[in-house]
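Posting this for the archive.
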Amino acid sequence: MGVIHSIMPAAAFGASVAGPVYFSIKAVASSDKADDTKWLMYWVLWAALSVVEALIGSIFNTLFVYAYVKVALCLWLWLPSTDGASLVYSMFLRPQLHRHAPALNALLRRDGRSATAKYPETVGQGMESARRNMDGAGQASH
């Protein structure tokens, strides 16, 4: 049992990141928009899970079964036979985002203006760098 438990962090990484990255790359390369949407929903949920883990992950990690549960959850979210990400996104996350969108938008606008006012040079450099990267990416794809 010790060996299996010691490899669970690697299994959790594979289940939550490595497999989905591979399939996301394939989805981006395909012309089907539906698979892009499926993987975008997965990554939004993965990010939400990562935030929860960052906030209270130390509590989860004390539970012996947490790594096993995380592997099962991540597989359930992205395996085509279950498509859990679509279910969780449409039944929970999307309604919550719509409900709280005005407050979130106001917060993001306020914090964006605040950051620009407080650090105009840094924000300007970051925006310029992003523009150059976007221009370079656009030219590379043509």
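The chain has two domains: 1-82, 87-142. Residues 84-118 form the longest helix (35 residues).
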